[in-house]
Task: inverse folding
C-alpha cells in the first residue's frame, strides 16, 4: 500500500522525522518497504495561466501562448500541447529552470529560445516532464484556484515522501491511511484526529438480509431487496457538466479513491448505473452455468460456491470482487446506485484467484473489513460524489443478518512474559492493549480482551501476546543469550568418526551422495523386506511416504539417475541414518521412543573396475574389487565372508560380512537389482515360462518352486534348490542383462558401522 507522508500526518503527527517514522512503523510489524520523494528534484517551475493563444505563423501544430506567471508579468511561450486552451492553469518552467533528467540521463536546463522564428521565454510542462507521472499526452492541468506565481512543488506538495508498506494478511485494519494512523498513535502516544463523517441520510428500510455470505448490506432503493449486510443508496441527477477537468465517469471514480484517505478501514463501494438494473438487485449464491462479463472484459462462469449480485434478469456483479460491465458507470450515467456491504472473508477468499485475477475489493474483503461502519462509509462516498459530480442523494436501505460478534480472548500475563522473554506486569499488558483501543477487563493474573469490530486478527492468546510485544517495542526486548546445558557427545579416540570414514571412502574412489531419508514404500517392501516401515503423517510427496530402513534403495536410485545420463562408471557411497521400529529404544535427548535410528554406510560400484587407461584393459567391476575396498576400509582388522542371502541381492553371489564374531553387513553382486533400477520397473519374477502369471519378489519368496518347474530351466537363479524359498529377481518388464554387461556390486552395512580402529 502506498500513501504520502502528509496524508498520514493529517491524522497523527508525532514529532518524528520521516526516517524515524518509517523505522517506527517497521519495528511495529508494518514494514516500510520503500520511502521515496513524491517527485524528482527540479526548480524554477511556477503556476501560470494561459491568457491567450494563437496559431504559430510557421508551424501548423504549434501555438504561441501569452502566459500570466503572477505579479503582472506575462511571458510568450511557444507550445505544441494539444490540450492547451485559454484560461487553463498549468506548470510553467521559466528561463533558468532545471527540469528532471530525461531519457539521456541529463537534467534539462530551460533557456531563451526561438521556435520557427518566434521567441519562447520558457516552457509549459506535462506531468511526464516534471517526473510525477507517465502521462505525456498534454499539459498538466492544475486547480483553477491555484495561486499564480507559486512554486509548483509547493502547490502540488511534491516535497512529500511516498511510503510503501508491505502488509501481512493479518493487518487488514491497516489497509487505509486512517488505519495506519491509528497504529501510529498507539505506538507513539501522539493524538489521533478522527475524520468527521457526514450525518446519516434518510433510511427507507431497515430489516434482515437473506444470504449467508453477506451479513450486512446498505443500499439506496425505493423498495427493500434481499441482501446480507448491505447498505445502498441511489443518486439521481448527476451533473455531467460539473466543473472539473475529469470526464463524468472519471470524476465519479475519483470519489472512491479520495475516500481511501480519510475513512476507517474502508470497504470497497461498488456503484451501478441504475438505468440498467432490471427489477432491483438481490444478493445470492450463483447457479452452475451462469456467466457474467466483468469490468475487465473477462467473462466468467460461476457456480454454487461464488456469491453474486443479480437483478431480475442477469448477474450484475461478483460479490465482493468486481462489478459487471452491463451496469458500469459511464459518461451517459445520470442515476447511480451505491452499495456498501460486509462480506464474510471465507465467502470471498480464493474466488478471484479461481478466475486468474485479483482486485482491491477482493484483497480487502477476504481479510475482513469493519462491519460496524458501513453506513458511515456510504455517507462519506455520498458526500464526495455530491462535491465532485453534483446530484441528489436518495434514501438508504440498511439490511443486517448474523453480523460477526467479537469474542473475548483471555491473556495470561505469566504466559506472555514467558513467550516474549522479559518480565511483564498486569498493568503493562493492560496499558499496551488499551492503547490499541481494545476493551480490557483485568482479572487475577490475566486479562479478558474484547477486540473491536475491525480487528479480525485477534482470536487467540498468541495474537494478544504479539500485540503486547509490538507496543512495548521489539527493540526494547532484553538481549538475553540462550542458556542451555551443552554436553559434548565425545567419541572414543580408538574409533574413527564419520568424517574420517567419508575421507577414506573418497580415497578409495567413491563419491558421496546425500539422499532423503523418506523413500517409496515399495522400496522397503522389495529391497529391505520390510512390510511395516515407519510411515510419515504428512509426506512431501506421495512417492516419499515412509522412512527408509536400508540405504540400498537410495543408492540404486542414484545409479539409475546416472545411467539414464549415459554414465559409464559409477562408484558412490552414502553415510546416513536408517529408521526401524524398536520397542526397546527409550525417549531421550537424541532418540525417539520406539524408533531405532542407527548410522549406516553403504557403497555401490557399477561399470568398469578402473577408469579408462592404457596400462590395463577394460573389465567390469566384480565381487573381488569391492571386497578389496572393504578390506582396505577395515584394515588392520580382518573380516570374514560367509555365503548368505539378502532379499535385494543376487542369490548365490551374496556374502555376509563378519567382524570379530559379529555380522556387520552384506556384500554381493546386484545385477538383477541394478537392472531393475535402470529399467525403473517394479521388481517382478515369472514363475513359469509358459504362463503370463507374474508376482512380486516378496510373493516369490513366500512360495517355493521345485527344480523341475518351468522357471528353473529359463531362470536357474530363481530356483537354486527345492529345499528353500528362492530369491526370484528376473523382472518381467526388464530382460535379464546379457553376459558381459556392466555388473553392479554393492556393500551394505547392517550392524555397527566400520568405524572401529
Result:
Amino acid at each position: 500500500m502506498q500513501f504520502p507522508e502528509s496524508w498520514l500526518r493529517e491524522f497523527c503527527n508525532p514529532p518524528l522525522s520521516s526516517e524515524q517514522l518509517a523505522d517506527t512503523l517497521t519495528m511495529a510489524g508494518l514494514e516500510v518497504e520503500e520511502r521515496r520523494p513524491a517527485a524528482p528534484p527540479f526548480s524554477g517551475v511556477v503556476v501560470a495561466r494561459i491568457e491567450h493563444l494563437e496559431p504559430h505563423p510557421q508551424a501548423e501544430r504549434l501555438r504561441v501562448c501569452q502566459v500570466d506567471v503572477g505579479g503582472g508579468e506575462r511571458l510568450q511561450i511557444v507550445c505544441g500541447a494539444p490540450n492547451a486552451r485559454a484560461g487553463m492553469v498549468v506548470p510553467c518552467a521559466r528561463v533558468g529552470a532545471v527540469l528532471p533528467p530525461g531519457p539521456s540521463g541529463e537534467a534539462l536546463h530551460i533557456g531563451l529560445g526561438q521556435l520557427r522564428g518566434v521567441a519562447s521565454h520558457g516552457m509549459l510542462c506535462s506531468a511526464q516532464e516534471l517526473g510525477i507521472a507517465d502521462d505525456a499526452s498534454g499539459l498538466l492541468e492544475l486547480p483553477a484556484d491555484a495561486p499564480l506565481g507559486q512554486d509548483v512543488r509547493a502547490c502540488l506538495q511534491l516535497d512529500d515522501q511516498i511510503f510503501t508498506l508491505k502488509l501481512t494478511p493479518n493487518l487488514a485494519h491497516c489497509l487505509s491511511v486512517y488505519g495506519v494512523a491509528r497504529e501510529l498513535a498507539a505506538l507513539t502516544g501522539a493524538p489521533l484526529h478522527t475524520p468527521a463523517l457526514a450525518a446519516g441520510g434518510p433510511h427507507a428500510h431497515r430489516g434482515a438480509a437473506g444470504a449467508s455470505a453477506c451479513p450486512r448490506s446498505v443500499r439506496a432503493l425505493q423498495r427493500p431487496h434481499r441482501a446480507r449486510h448491505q447498505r445502498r443508496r441511489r443518486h439521481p441527477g448527476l451533473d455531467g457538466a460539473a466543473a472539473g477537468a475529469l470526464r463524468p465517469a472519471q470524476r465519479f471514480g475519483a470519489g472512491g479513491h479520495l475516500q481511501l484517505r480519510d475513512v476507517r478501514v474502508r470497504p470497497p463501494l461498488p456503484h451501478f448505473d441504475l438505468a440498467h438494473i432490471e427489477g432491483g438487485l438481490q444478493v445470492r449464491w450463483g447457479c452452475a452455468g451462469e456467466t457474467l462479463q466483468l469490468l475487465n472484459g473477462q467473462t466468467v462462469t460461476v457456480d454454487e460456491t461464488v456469491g453474486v449480485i443479480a437483478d431480475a434478469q442477469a448477474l450484475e456483479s461478483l460479490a465482493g470482487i468486481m462489478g459487471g460491465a452491463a451496469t458500469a458507470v459511464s459518461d451517459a450515467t445520470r442515476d447511480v446506485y451505491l452499495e456498501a456491504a460486509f462480506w464474510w472473508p471465507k465467502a470471498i477468499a480464493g474466488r478471484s484467484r479461481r478466475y486468474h485475477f485479483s482486485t482491491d475489493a477482493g484483497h480487502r474483503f477476504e481479510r475482513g473489513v469493519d462491519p460496524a461502519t458501513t453506513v458511515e462509509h456510504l455517507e462519506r462516498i455520498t458526500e464526495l460524489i455530491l462535491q465532485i459530480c453534483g446530484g441528489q442523494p436518495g434514501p438508504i436501505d440498511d439490511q443486517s443478518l448474523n453480523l460477526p460478534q467479537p469474542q473475548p480472548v483471555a491473556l495470561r500475563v505469566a504466559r506472555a512474559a514467558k513467550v516474549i522473554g522479559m518480565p511483564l506486569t498486569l498493568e503493562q499488558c493492560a496499558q499496551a492493549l488499551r492503547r490499541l483501543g481494545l476493551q480490557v477487563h483485568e482479572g487475577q493474573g490475566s486479562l479478558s480482551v474484547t477486540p473491536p469490530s475491525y480487528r479480525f486478527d485477534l482470536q487467540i492468546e498468541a495474537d494478544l501476546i504479539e500485540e503486547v510485544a509490538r507496543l512495548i517495542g521489539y527493540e526494547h526486548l532484553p538481549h538475553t543469550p540462550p542458556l542451555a546445558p551443552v554436553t559434548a557427545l565425545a567419541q572414543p579416540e580408538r574409533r574413527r568418526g564419520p568424517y574420517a570414514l567419508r575421507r577414506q571412502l573418497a580415497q578409495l574412489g567413491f563419491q558421496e551422495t546425500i539422499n532423503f531419508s523418506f523413500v517409496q514404500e515399495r522400496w522397503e517392501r522389495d529391497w529391505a523386506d520390510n512390510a511395516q516401515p515407519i510411515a510419515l503423517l504428512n509426506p512431501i510427496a506421495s512417492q516419499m511416504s515412509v522412512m527408509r530402513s536400508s540405504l540400498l534403495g537410495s543408492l540404486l536410485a542414484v545409479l539409475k539417475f546416472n545411467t539414464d545420463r549415459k554414465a559409464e562408471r559409477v562408484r558412490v557411497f552414502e553415510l546416513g541414518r536408517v529408521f526401524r521400529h524398536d520397542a526397546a529404544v527409550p525417549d531421550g535427548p537424541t532418540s525417539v521412543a520406539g524408533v531405532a535410528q542407527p548410522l549406516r554406510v553403504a557403497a555401490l560400484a557399477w561399470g568398469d573396475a578402473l577408469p579408462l587407461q592404457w596400462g590395463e584393459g577394460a573389465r567390469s567391476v566384480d565381487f573381488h574389487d569391492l571386497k578389496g575396498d572393504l578390506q582396505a576400509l577395515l584394515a588392520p582388522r580382518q573380516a570374514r565372508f560367509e555365503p548368505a542371502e539378502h532379499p535385494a541381492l543376487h542369490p548365490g553371489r551374496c556374502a555376509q560380512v563378519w567382524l570379530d564374531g559379529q555380522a556387520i553387513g552384506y556384500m554381493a553382486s546386484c545385477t538383477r537389482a541394478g537392472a531393475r533400477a535402470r529399467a525403473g520397473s517394479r521388481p517382478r519374477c515369472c514363475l513359469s515360462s509358459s504362463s503370463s502369471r507374474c508376482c512380486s519378489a516378496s510373493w516369490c519368496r513366500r512360495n517355493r518352486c521345485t527344480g523341475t518347474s518351468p522357471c528353473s530351466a529359463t531362470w536357474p537363479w530363481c530356483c537354486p534348490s527345492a529345499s528353500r524359498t528362492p530369491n526370484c529377481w528376473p523382472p518381467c518388464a526388464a530382460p535379464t542383462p546379457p553376459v558381459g554387461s556392466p555388473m553392479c556390486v554393492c556393500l551394505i552395512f547392517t550392524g555397527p558401522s566400520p568405524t572401529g580402529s
